[in-house]
Amino acid sequence: MQQIIECVPNFSEGVDLNIIKQITNEIESIEGSRLLNVDPGKATNRTVVTFVGDPKAVVEAAFHAIKKAGELIDMSKHKGEHPRMGATDVCPLIPIANISMEETAKYAQQLAKRVGEELNIPVYLYEAAQPDKSRSNLSVIRAGEYEGFFKKIKLPEWKPDFGPAEFDAKRGGTVIGARDFLVAYNVNLNTTSVRRANAIAFDVREAGRVKKINNKTVLDENGKPVHIPGSLKSVKAIGWYIEEYGVAQISMNLTNINVTPVHIAFDEVCKKADARGIRVTGSELVGLIPLKSMLDAGKYFLLKQKRSTGVSEKELLKIAIKSMGLDELSPFKPEERIIEYMLRGKGDNKLVSMTLSDFADETASESPAPGGGSISAYMATLGAALATMVANLSSHKKGWDERWEEFSNWAEKGEYYKSELLKLVDADTKAFNQIMQAFGLSKSTDEEKATRNNAIQEATKFAIEIPFKVMELAYASMDVIKAMADIGNPNSVSDAGVAALCARSAVIGAFMNVRINAKDFADTNFTNEILKRGNEIEQQAIALEKETVTIVNEKIGA
């Protein structure tokens, strides 16, 4: 269970690509740190860099990147649209996998301490890493920006958490912290007016705007300005003009995409802009985004059209990109913008990325993998795909308009089984390769023999579990298949019949692989239990296929 954290430092240089490359070279030089994305902005004169890895490696990479940025960037000459206070303006650490926010915050504190003490840069902690919540907000810390910090840093309440209480004219100050995943997202407007863009930003951002009557600020009983909250929770926003594009934008930080997802932020800005006579022309993502956010957006816009959401991942991404105009200013490449796609290994999808003819040739070659396990997984995938097709055809069959949601739900189930089964096509071959690698380990000493035997047993267990998972999913998909034979578009009933044949064959074929691999596994309690359940699934699948084919034949006729 490897711990993974993400680091998204913002460097105050967006024009000189040579400087940016020297900084990112430092990140790539650290083993265990993986550079995912580099997003320079000319107008903001700022580059957002994203990298992930083991926490210790990420902290080390961040330290070297901050050091290099301080050597190369001169803040006394910096100009840009975005608020900033240092060469490395902000450096957040974000928990991604198998690590808590509390642990991540400790790593941020370690990094901040090292930067302050070894590099002599004034460092402020923020968000989860800052114990003093009165100064944990980034915008509060950065208020006054680079130009104002020469005075601000001398105030007792703004003494840095680490490093000297002297503002470095060349390197500025740095803010380091730990936070939840944040999406930086800009919405493009058909205006050049910053004032109008700001008005829309105030309409939507959580902080809203200061309440005024007769152009006078309204104060509360404590003498503080009263705020009218905006319409979106967990959203920070400002309006600005981007000379590079010749348009004004609403620049937003979505600090909790579970509270306000990207698609909701986009739609709300559209509403508020329209109310002010301004049109939204598209939007722009800065940095990376989780896959789920994009898929949720695709489903959201399909539901607004009363269309089936049970379509492929690729189709959902296409709908999301086009609906939000993410490709208006520059091409939007999912493989470069979606975190999960960036983290995929080069060989993770070797088989499913092949053409049909190449896959057939690879199977027919003298190599023992891919074999029956991968083919069983692919048969099951095709069965689920056919059932999904019938559901989608049924969802917009003429005369069945009122049933679109019913069939959309079936299509979503089918799409889930299809996508999960597709992953197992390569996983089965991976399991076989792991067994071969384990057998190839040295066995010269007793210790090496024990290590080799343990590796063989672990690999064998994996090789049992993968085809068993194929069995479970293939059988589960037969629920969708039978429903589509029974209530789906009658013109496609034969497709449901073929789907049933695929699913049943996949279950039987996968069980053969379970059984042959179980012969070599030492834990008989495990194998007895899995073989017992496997027999049950096989018999249930055979029976369900028979019921489905009977329905199909009755509808087709003699």
How would you summarize the topology of this molecule?
Layout: E1 4-7, E2 10-11, H1 17-28, E3 33-41, E4 46-53, H2 55-72, E5 88-97, H3 101-119, E6 123-127, H4 138-142, H5 145-152, E7 174-178, E8 183-189, H6 194-204, E9 209-210, E10 212-213, E11 216-217, E12 227-228, E13 235-242, E14 247-254, H7 262-275, E15 280-286, H8 291-304, H9 313-324, H10 334-337, H11 339-343, H12 356-364, H13 372-395, H14 404-439, H15 446-487, H16 493-518, H17 524-556
Parallel strand pairs: 5-7, 6-7
Antiparallel strand pairs: 1-4, 1-5, 2-4, 2-5, 3-4, 8-14, 8-15, 9-12, 10-11, 13-14
**Mean pLDDT, rounded to whole units?**
92
Uncertain spans:
none
Total of helices: 17
Number of strands: 15
Cα-to-Cα separation, first versus last residue: 56 Å
CATH architecture of the largest domain: Up-down Bundle
Question: Mind telling me the CATH class of the largest domain?
Answer: Mainly Alpha
**Overall outline:** globular
CATH topology of the largest domain: Four Helix Bundle (Hemerythrin (Met), subunit A)
